[in-house]
Amino acid sequence: MIAANNTNYIGSIVRFIKQVRVINSIFEKSFIYHSYACRKKKGTHLAVKNLQKTLKKYSKPGRQVYFLKADIKSFFTSIDKEILIKLIKKKIKNKDIIWLIRKIVLTSPAKEALKAGSPSLFNEIPKHKSLFWAKEGKGLPIGNLTSQFFANIYLNSLDQFVRHTLKAKHYFRYVDDLVILDTSPRRLENYIQRIDGFLKKNLLLELHPEKTFIRETEKGIDFLGSRFDVFGIFISALIIFIINLFLAEYLFYRERFLSYLFASASLFFVILVLIAVAAVISVN
Which of 70, 114, 245, 250 could form a disulfide with 178 if both were Cys (CB 3.0 to 4.6 A apart)? Predict the structure, then answer.
């Protein structure tokens, strides 16, 4: 009986591995473009690049642009496991896959972990960042690759709410870091209230009050370890333009110089050939 159970368990894992790409493709179709975490051809560099590009296009002389920077409080340790499973079951109907996903999601690493090292150092870990202090039925281990994928599924409903209900045009998200650009600080204030309300009601999460704020883009945006502002973007663009201008001039004159050099070399070669031919004729 034990051997049969092990065989079934291993078989389920094999089937799950085969379905990983299919599962990913199913959810990938529903993700918004500007969600950048743990997705193929996405990542931090593209997130920063696209935010810079949007800020450059959106910022015009005489237009004041603001940004909303938001962070979800204790995101990974606050994910509700049953809500996550319900969200997954909306698109995945295969019972074996759901069974294995439940095994992964409902497993508690804190209960099975072996503590090593000094207990005093362990106690210094902030409680809101540790699964050892998470409430029952809450939290996913950040280190698991499945957790990153599940996090995208969990917050996809938030993305849809911001893009289609709030109709925020310039919205960017990387895991629990959010940025929205807009010309109206009042509208951004409204976004904060409605996003926080949506998180509390539907996902049992909340915005971090100390890490959620609205500022002018001129003061600079900190996003995913990068800092940039409109002035810096324009200066960079101006420098690049000047460099390209000088480079174009250099290449233009270099091409002219190379053309003259080639013409002179060709003329010299023709003269040498004529001299050689004349010498051969005179000898004969």
Answer: 70
Q: Distance between CA atoms of 170 and 162, rounded to whole angstroms?
A: 10
Residue 162 has pLDDT above 80, yes or no: yes
Distance CA 55, CA 66 (A): 10
Give the pLDDT confidence of 193-246 residue by residue, as tens digits: 999 999 999 999 999 999 999 999 888 888 887 776 655 544 544 554 455 555
DSSP 92-147: ---HHHHHHHHHHHH--HHHH----S-HHHHTTS-GGG-GGGPPTTB---TT-HHH
| Cα–Cα distance measured from residue 107 to residue 141, given in angstroms and rounded to the nearest whole number | 10
CB 76, CB 142: distance < 8 Å: yes
Closest CA to 156 of 16, 43, 24: 24
| Average pLDDT over all residues of the chain | 80
Cβ atoms 12, 138 nearer than 8 A: no
The pTM score is 0.73
Q: Are 105 and 140 in contact (CB under 8 A)?
A: yes
Strands (E), the chain: 66-71, 170-174, 177-182, 213-216, 221-223, 226-228
d(CA 238, CA 244): 10
Spatial CA neighbour of 67 closest among 206, 176, 170, 198: 170
